[in-house]
Amino acid sequence: VTAETPATRAKAIVGQLVAADVSLAAMLPESWLPDLIAAVDAEPAISQIRVTREDDGAAICAGAALAGVRGVLICQNAGLLASANGLAAYANYHQIPFLVIASARGGVDDSFFYQTYKNVTAPVLTAIGMPHHCIDGPADDHLIPEAMQQAWLNRKPVALLCTRRGLLGEEFRA
Amino acid sequence: MKRDDLALLVEKRLTTGQVVICGEGATTFAWQRTRSQAPTFFCNDPMGLSPGLALGFALAVPERDVVLLTGDGELLFNLSVLVTIAAANPGNLRMIVFHNRRYETGGGQPLPGAQKMRLAAIAEASGLAGPLAPEAGASAAEIAASLDDLLAGPAPRMLVVEVDAEPARYPAAGAGGMSGVEQRITFQRQLEQLPPSVWNTDVS
To answer: Is the full-model pTM beyond 0.90?
Structure first.
């Protein structure tokens, strides 16, 4: 079995995004995301937009969805907390679909000292009415097109929270 | 110039096929009162995200001209979006800022730095070329000329228009009395009526 690396995971995720008909990605970097962002940049089927705030990325995806274009916001889970007002509006008030792929920082697989968000993110998403699922490795990649389909059927953003293994393909090492 | 008069100047200049993304609060009321037939998406709420939504929409439909109407309070809520718009460089997005230096629907309180800020300078420093900003007290003809310049010229570009301070009631209901979902569906139905039909909002 070939070991998964950040590059192979990024390639697999982008392949699933293309399979989900994603043609626009709004992205804000963090330290688990460089390979995924580079893979999106290299994918000609996906236009990429760099944002300075995650809620701008949500708004960009929402605007694209109004014209039938499927977008994805790629960011850290802390960015979802920062975007709660916008995400809640798109999930409830206007009901506009798009996909979010977020690094799930702050869990047992994260050794970084100030990342503490993992236990907070999912309850907040639940509270604002946003479906969310976990990608913990290649076996979960099928969730990417499925979550996009869920978003468009339910007319609301759907989040995929990605563990370290899910994004980087490596086990936690302290 | 009053907000309603600026909204009417804009409405008279829009041509078939142009699409409006409208920010929240007093700007929404002024645009509604024009009874414009232009497809319009009303962003209220969330505050600060109408420019980003307009950007995403404009990128999705490069064959359509998109006009964002927003107020200075909403723009100040999220100035960094100007950098994002400048970087994305959508050639079909033009922005008109209703600028009266107050949070009108919040009760008319002054914006921070209300009399010091220069929004056009901020836009230009963010990378948006050639912002237009008629002087405070400019005549209707001068403002109309700036609008013509904006709508006929290159994009992305911003026009900042000084409008009078006028109390605006706090909205009891969304645009047209519709819920957010109804507004969104109405907008998408308006898009479907545009010639030629290029819209693919089928979610099946």
So the answer is: yes
